[in-house]
Structures
1.
Amino acid sequence: ASAKELPYLTMTSLSIGAPIGGHIHLEVPTDSDLRNATDIRKKNAIKILATFLTPIVASEHKLSTAIRFGGGGYGKLDDVRIGNVTNSDAMTYEVRGQSAEWICHPEIARATLAYLGVVWNEILTTPTAQLMRSPFILKTSSQVQAIHTLLISEYTPIFDGVIDNLHNLVKTYKMYNDYKKEIDLIFDISKASKMIYRDWETDRKSVV
């Protein structure tokens, strides 16, 4: 057999327990009052981001999710790091609760960034205390842990209700209609999972 026919390379975008990236940096504009916000407001922003990260993580490989959630604080829904970019005035909220699997499919990648962009815009333009009034926003570490458990157990009678409620909530956000197609894809967990799954085992011929 020729070298071209030998299966010398196997590629996959399945992360399992490997911290291979996939973090998303959401920039805080220089004129945003979130830059000098109180600790309470900053924590509220993190809770809102953690809440809306749920459907993204729901589309991941469950083994990857279970391993990540079973460790320390890294890679959990509320794992968001606030920091300044080196040698720059830029300040970001680094969302670290998802694996890198969303990157492997172009439609999912676009949808993920559009979806979180809509949520981030709402955080920047609406008092977080107002957003926190929704009963569907996570408010305590125990509630975050409860969603972790649902994500791993796939107990659909409850979990489907959580997803539907979050979908309906984001529909009330200002920029939802601008990215309706992308956001609706994120909340179609079955379809999004299948699209990601098709790219977990990448065809060698398509990349060599």
2.
Amino acid sequence: GDAPRYRPPLPGRLATDQGQLYSILDPAEPGVVQHPAGLFVLRFPGHWRVLVSARGDYVSYLVSPEAGRVPPSQLRTGVRVAEVVMSDVFRRQRWTPAAMLKHLLPAFLKDEPGMKLDGEPRPARLGGLEAAACTLRGPRKDAPGEHVKDIVVAEKVGIAFQLTALAPAEDSAGFQAAWEKIAADSTFGREGLARRDTSLEARRIVQQ
């Protein structure tokens, strides 16, 4: 069987929001945070803060100018990054980023039933990786008003990376430059990744 995923302890003071554990992380170097296992390095505006959250075995990192001021469920604007170790079957198929996004899109739409695909999926870049992206638009299930959610997926050495940028529709045009710079300046993946470092919940989605 698979070994359990490496899950670092959440740093700092823990709190709970809608059944989700989270913690605010103040990086040693403002604007830079590295995954404990070296899976990615996020580079973002220095005045933003990092929110590390966990639900079951699923851990994600969110950077936002609002982090620390409101609970995670009330954040209006932010960029979330998570990693998924793909199943052996999924890796052997050697799907392109576009095929991977098409496979995962129904799960994204199910998670936010009020949001709809806005335009067609498109080629993108995530750090130095080839990626695919799509935009969802509509009301969020836990927030009033129209929102825009951009999703970018890429893969390296059997690890899939997902970046999600979220903003209210009226702020999305101005926020786009910020999240695209984060996607471009950050680093995703490294050689020699341990393939048994796995997320059980994310693996279940990929294996559907």
